[in-house]
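call fold target=V(D)J recombination-activating protein 1 RNase H domain-containing protein
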Amino acid sequence: MYPAYHKIKVAKQLCYPSDVNVTETFAEIKLQSLMDHTKHYYAIVQSARRCLKILRTLNIIVKWGCDGVEQSRYKQKFSSENCSDESLFSLSMVPIQIYSVSDQKIKKIVWQNPSPYSTRYFRLIKFMFAKETLNIIKTEVKRTREQVKSLLPTKISLNDMEVSVKPTLIFCMIDGKICNAVAGCESTQSYYLCGAKPSEMNDERIIMQKTVISFPSKTVGIFFPWACHLSTLGLDFLNAYYIFHIVLK
């Protein structure tokens, strides 16, 4: 037997976050609303599994980033002639882990994403019909970072108890173009950590004189698999030097 349709409608409404803004050329949701909805959903799931009986404070780790894509232009008509659907730029996030820390500094994992590199738990923050330009990247990343800074812990009431969930967002879902744009390095041929050009990468003396670009804490994530991939291009020394310089600093 299938459930009554009105119950299905109620269940669907519970899956919709608030503060959604949709126009002809873009759709977005406020980051605070999306985080509240995400944390509330997982809290309900874990409550059903009796994982939140004694926990009152939780932390959630989320990775986020952006990317652009080109596609065929369809016969979609827009009110403005300058609008087109041949380019799409999106910002998204993926929850990684929910955990708690006891008074004895013991970490207890409440929920773990079983497939962090999959789109299974993928959540869109914003998508827009726009080309992935340097200006678009900087503008949208800056706007999202401002929302990240203003995020507040989510208070969730479950079974006559209140649970507080504190968010931690890490900007690491990026490619080389996004990374260079955020670092202020306009050329995609240059190394984003120091601005070294391809012709300089094999000269140890020049590399040692380069200044490492200073990033705020948790601003840009560094994937070590990506560093290993770069080593196949003869950049193993360059990556090792700057990665360990940042870590030790």
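return ok
Strands lie at 20-22, 26-29, 57-70, 87-101, 107-112, 123-128, 154-158, 161-173. Residues 222-237, 243-249 have pLDDT under 50 and may be disordered.
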